[in-house]
Amino acid sequence: MEDNVxxxxxxxxxxxxNTYAVENFNLYVNKGEFVTFLGPSGCGKTTTLRMIAxxxxxxxxxxxxNGQDITLISPHMRPVNTVFQRYALFxxxxxxxxxxxxxxxxxxxxxxxxxxxxxxxxEIDEKVLNALKIVDLEEYEDRDVTTLxxxxxxxxAIARAIVNEPEILLLDEPLGALDLKMRKDMQLELKQMHKxxxxxxIYVTHDQEEALTMSDIIVVMKDGQIQQIGTPTDIYNEPxxxxxxxxxxxxxxxxxxxxxxxTVRFLNHNFACVDDxxxxxxxxxxxxxxxxxxxxxxxxxxxxxxxxxxxxxxxHYQYVFMVGKNEVVIQDTRDFxxxxxxxxxxxxxxxxxxxxxxxxxxxxxxxxxNKNRVVIANTPFECDVTQVxxxxxxxxxxxxxxxxxxxxxxxxxxxxxxxxxxxxxxxENEEDGMVPGVIVSVIYKGDHYQVTVRxxxxxxxxxxxxxxxxxxxxxxxxxxxxxxSLSIKGDISKYEI
Length: 497
Fold this sequence. Notes:
six-stranded mixed sheet; 3 domains; Rossmann fold; CATH 2.40.50.140; five-stranded antiparallel sheet; single chain; alpha+beta; 497 residues
């Protein structure tokens, strides 16, 4: 229902210099929901939160709260409060005064006179004590904040935010400074606080467990864009793409082929599945969660293989099972010996099939330079320009000669360049390749990795490789001349001379 929507972000973009931190962000949040922005560092989740708070202004787009446009309204005029990771408590004030600080500056409309007035000491006292009760810090009002534990200081920061009775509470990785046990305890406490308060929480984290534990709705982000919006169950069980599947929990992800008639082929086997919205022989991605793989005796399952590692995880064993060169991660409560032959089975409804986001690197804004090289990411690559016109060749001066003898000057010609994912070579040293960049994503796909290398010009090269790399590694890439496919954009006749 539209009446239940408290905040809406429409076509919101935020640019820093020439780079989009947030791009085409569209989201609405219902009153009373616990919504989490989830994604890796640099994905734009904190920038989005800051735009809702008013600390950053969108480059374009609009933000409305209860139907009112607040895009350009100052932070102090918005009925929202923010809790930061680093608490930002006043060290010279005790717990009570930290919480009361904002109330002493606040003005409200007097019901009798209609004029603006400050809160009375009694009103402030009632509000502070109520906030302390909500965060379970009763009897702590006189304590020095420097004597509190990290978890207690975080509760004070939350109390200071909620005491102003905001309609929306924004939380920017508020548990990031706590140790693991305290963080897990605070996850549950925050969820309970949300229920007590009944207001809208918008939470930012890169921790998948936090998001799954606390949220009503999760917004998964990557590179400033929304990848998927859904409940924790939907996000986990029905990821929209390989990035979401890899980022949320542990996953087995494979290149696969949809064979038709609810059959998909991967691990060199045809598996029955429940999806039927794909074309016959379409290349797809398949996701199978480790807990959904059934491990059994050799010869009695669908695919035979070998158990190569086993790790006890407390409530289950985690196995790595090899099918040829493909790795399958399995979680099972039963104890199987390492180096033993076994088999696996996967039920049809445990196989999740996704459309491939990318089958090749395609560059729509490539062009040919005066040496008949194709320029991608401001870097010229040797290529075969005769591909743009069948049965053509180059003369001694470098002009393209068509089959009917027409001459073409391809300098500055706009082309589309395509390179298969397996045809891009990663060099470990920046100086060894043609284009330096940094690895921003690594997804394991059973027997190889899908690696994304981003250049300084924000151009991505996606590579499928058997070699292991880490995110943030600085590398470079090479592409052989014969691996680049070209097609002309528009009519080639405009380049005729």
